[in-house]
Design goal:
The protein has 200 residues and is an alpha/beta fold. The chain is built from seven helices and eight strands. The strands form two sheets. Strands 2-1-3-8-4-7 form a six-stranded mixed β-sheet, sandwiched between helices. Strands 5-6 form a two-stranded antiparallel sheet. The protein is globular and about 40 Å long. The N and C termini lie close together (8 Å).
């Protein structure tokens, strides 16, 4: 299978959130590299949307990289900064329209996401049980950007199945401590890899 991993930020919407010691850019990159190694070891063909940690890539371009790769699944890695704690999986359940007027994703991609995302999230949640709070598998429209556009920009431009994982709330001390640790990063990567396996 072909998997595209998208370590979130920096993009046109900024550098993302940060905790006291860990940035969203750093967390996404560290977990992405671990996930890449796990997926390759399992026999998957893997690409990343950027070649170095702080490379600037627009969200549209990130989707286009996954499209060109003809990914069976595009996994986007982010961290949240809102109140609360834990992780979420988001997926497009309806078409949206971005600031350029682009409308998407297609009904076929939406149907695939609706089928894959719950399976992905169930395995992710099982892998993280006891470590982080499970906040569920929700449609893009439940995010700040998605509520305005109908879907996230990366989903609108996606021609392949896509999920976005908010891995933790970086402004929550214990969440940040989990992803700061080698053990936490490895557990997150293994849970994500289990999610990919379950989805596909």
């Amino acid at each position: 299978m072909k998997i595209c991993i998208d370590p979130g930020h920096p993009s046109e919407v900024g550098e993302g959130t940060r905790g006291k010691k860990l940035t969203e850019i750093r967390a996404g990159w560290l977990v992405a590299k671990r996930l890449e190694a796990l997926l390759k070891a399992a026999g998957h063909d893997v690409t990343l949307t950027k070649s170095r940690e702080k490379e600037f890539v627009k969200n549209r371009k990130r989707a286009e990289i996954a499209n060109a790769f003809q990914a069976d699944l595009h996994v986007r890695l982010h961290c949240d900064s809102e109140g609360g704690t834990g992780f979420w999986t988001y997926y497009p359940d309806r078409p949206g329209t971005d600031s350029t007027g682009k409308r998407g994703p297609s009904p076929e991609v939406i149907a695939a996401c609706k089928q894959l995302a719950p399976k992905f999230h169930a395995a992710l949640a099982a892998g993280l049980k006891g470590a982080l709070r499970d906040n569920g598998c929700l449609p893009d429209i439940r995010t700040a950007v998605g509520s305005k556009q109908g879907a996230l920009t990366g989903s609108i431009w996606s021609q392949v199945p896509v999920v976005l994982v908010e891995m933790c709330v970086l402004t929550h001390a214990s969440d940040e401590a989990f992803l700061l640790s080698d053990a936490g990063q490895e557990r997150m990567a293994k849970a994500l890899a289990a999610g990919v396996a379950a989805a596909l």
